[in-house]
Task: structure prediction
Amino acid sequence: MDTKKLVVGIDIGGTNTKFGMVDRIGNIYAEENISTPLYSDFEDYINALKNVIEKLEKDVEDAEIIGIGIGAPNGNHNTGEISFAANLPWQGTLPIVAKLQRFFPSICITLDNDANAAAIGEMIYGGAAKMRDFIFVTLGTGVGSGFVANGEMIYGHDGLAGELGHVIVEKNGRQCGCGRCGCLETYTSAPGIKRTISELLALSNEDSIFRHKSLDEFEAKDIATAAQNGDKIANDAFAITGETLGLALANAVTITVPEAIFLFGGLAKAGDLIFKPTIASFEKNVLKVWKNKIKILPSELQNKDVSILGSASLAWNSINRGLC
Amino acid sequence: MDTKKLVVGIDIGGTNTKFGMVDRIGNIYAEENISTPLYSDFEDYINALKNVIEKLEKDVEDAEIIGIGIGAPNGNHNTGEISFAANLPWQGTLPIVAKLQRFFPSICITLDNDANAAAIGEMIYGGAAKMRDFIFVTLGTGVGSGFVANGEMIYGHDGLAGELGHVIVEKNGRQCGCGRCGCLETYTSAPGIKRTISELLALSNEDSIFRHKSLDEFEAKDIATAAQNGDKIANDAFAITGETLGLALANAVTITVPEAIFLFGGLAKAGDLIFKPTIASFEKNVLKVWKNKIKILPSELQNKDVSILGSASLAWNSINRGLC
Result:
């Protein structure tokens, strides 16, 4: 029997670190899971990664690991370091690729942040498989993005490019966690649409279930449910969110002109509620030459294990491109 | 004596078509010039290009032409076609690369639009020579741009990427020639700063030489002169133009994170008048992680023959990258 050439995808989260042995077409052969905060010392954590990787290779019969892909908050593809990630237990700059490479000197190891990992996952395993130019947008707790142009992720001079969530869309707009005001993610993230609910409750006299709940008592998905049940404030909130997102995307495409834009994350799960007003606003606002030419699509990773597939795709992408 | 390996740069304008024989470091060995509208038939024009190219090769002793670069309005790098260029005498889609390639089957021929040609000129002959990530912005009759990421021009799916001038910066803003409202170029082009003068004359009671001139009677460079002479309206117009441009650039860098942004064209010649408020607004509006890290610089092609160097650089770039 031939050796199965596999990669290990590692998704580092504040709570769990997930591992998966994945082949070129997205089959997951084995998975593991460890607690991230259990390892208060970063060297101990690196040793735990090493042990799990070695165990996985033994667990899958006739498997050979040819790559390791790591998705992590604030993971920098250019430097191989994780820098100042607020949700992880270790301080400062963590040279995770260099440390892991010592244990696996002949294996290709690639690091990236979560949004880029998901974008490359879309390219390797999802709807962007044959595309050289696309934009991937996550609408979650924040708004993240990955821009692929000429078949390559745009990393920028410092490895931190693709921060669509921090494009300023309203001068003197909503206060953002980044210290500025009016960033896209204060409008089109899950917390952003809740802020729009608050704004609409102030502006309108319309009744709504959200008049009777505190902000702690509902989430973005409850707004989707309310909208489906006919709550006008909830429907208006989606219409406004789509209007804002569509304009921001119409502006973004003037720079990279993608074949398609993929939407991913909690808000994207609301389906037509978010896609319809986003596409309408995009088509209204986009430069004439691109009208009806750029698709806005749901991510095909939405219902798959994006954390493992995204990080595994980082390794396959490096291997496919002959980078290691 | 060794053969000199040169390229021909061809800049196609509505009035003149300029030719130059250029080496790898920007020396121009010979130049020619023909009238563009003299050739009402496109086939005749192609024959004229062929004849001039052959003449140039004879004119320079021991020269061998190894590439041809063509800069043209609406020139599309991906297709090698010029499409619907309003200022050129021929209608429809013009497959200029394919037609010229018939005469020079073994020579690398590359087409691009003017803004991209200037951007690649900055990369081959100017301040971006060692950069893999930069933005080039022309502030002229319109606002054009070229985005280079990972050492490659971003062309996008259709070859038309990099239209920074058509990012909408004001909802319901100034009417743009593209049929929409609020595009950057309605504010930060040469006509844009004139519109800002009109707006300021309406808003303020301040005296100004522009109260005594019709819009036909002055140009953007007269606003620079007036500002240097202490005209407050003129100074305010530059301050506002820089404010708008700086915010648009702060938003653009979130996508590609360049090492530097180069400003080129009529307005960029105003020096500190435009650079100071642009940099101040950029630094005020940019995401914290990039504060004081991204340079905004005058193009080093500003006082060189950008039309010939830009188009010649297209050929050298294709040759350097092994594309032909």
